[in-house]
Design brief:
Length: about 290
């Protein structure tokens, strides 16, 4: 699971790649590639990490991830259970920026494409009314042939660039110096995602990174601009938000099953990061859905 550099397979007969992932879970290692990635989620849920952003993904979500930005779509643990019938299904478009060309991007009619590419460097989520229409457009991509692929791609960039409700995800281009550095960061992320419900002492995560505790703290803060405790709290709060959108568990239990060791700390961190109490969050969700 050391993969950070990741090569997108492209046949000789195509200028960009349309990839359909339809399996039990998505590729779950932190990775990066030269291509701009446009992903429309059809099925499955999980945690999304883009740069130093930590959030969730679910069916209907639409993301644009810029060239070289480390990211991972990590399905929830139940997707990895042997015999699970859960499916992870998405369609992704991989486009090398050079395909469009500097001259093309500087045309008066396409300058907004360049702005989209710059915004996507730190990852974008597309929200609002435009998301559904663009999603339907992406669903038709796998059957495109010939020159219609190019006209379709230009129209896709036009729709994305003009879409309202775009939201930048990360506040930095994650700093990864080489493959061994990528391997270390991936080990940290994988261990964190796999052990969210357990206590993760600083000593343990430093061991995973093969570093001293003080060196690990400096390393993680330099790479992500946040402390490890803030990062792990964000992951746990995102897990809590998913539980709050369902009615199976009372709020009093959700903090514990999301990895918080006491209810008062859960409520305090939830209010601080999410901006609402868990009760307010659950009420707001069911009032609008």
């Amino acid at each position: 699971m050391k993969v950070l550099p990741f090569r997108i397979t492209k046949t000789a007969g195509e200028s960009f790649t349309v990839q359909v992932d339809d399996s039990h879970y998505f590729y779950n290692a932190l990775h990066q590639h030269e291509e701009i990635q446009i992903t429309y989620i059809l099925k499955s849920e999980g945690s999304l990490i883009v740069g130093n952003y930590v959030g969730n993904f679910m069916p209907g979500d639409l993301f644009v991830i810029g060239s070289g930005q480390p990211h991972v779509f990590r399905n929830y643990p139940e997707y990895f259970i042997k015999g699970s019938r859960l499916q992870a299904h998405c369609i992704s478009i991989f486009v090398h920026e050079n395909l469009l060309g500097e001259s093309f991007l500087n045309l008066p009619e396409t300058k907004h494409f360049k702005q989209l590419i710059m915004q996507a460097e730190n990852g974008l989520v597309i929200k609002g009314k435009d998301k559904l229409a663009i999603g339907k457009m992406i669903m038709g991509a796998p059957v495109l042939k010939g020159v219609s692929r190019i006209t379709w791609l230009i129209n896709l960039f036009d729709r994305l660039a003009k879409a309202r409700g775009k939201q930048v995800l990360s506040n930095l281009q994650l700093s990864v110096s080489n493959e061994s550095d990528g391997e270390r960061l991936n080990k940290i992320y994988q261990y964190s995602l796999n052990n969210l419900t357990l206590p993760i002492p600083l000593k343990k995560i430093a061991e995973v990174a093969n570093m001293s505790e003080s060196s690990f703290c400096r390393y993680f803060k330099k790479r992500t601009r946040k402390t490890y405790s803030a990062f792990i709290n964000e992951l746990r709060l995102n897990k809590a938000c998913e539980h709050l959108k369902k009615k199976e568990n009372p709020i009093s239990e959700i903090g514990f099953i999301s990895g918080f060791n006491n209810l008062s700390n859960f409520n305090r961190q939830f209010k601080k990061i999410i901006g609402k109490t868990p009760k307010e969050y659950r009420q707001a969700f069911f009032e609008t859905n």
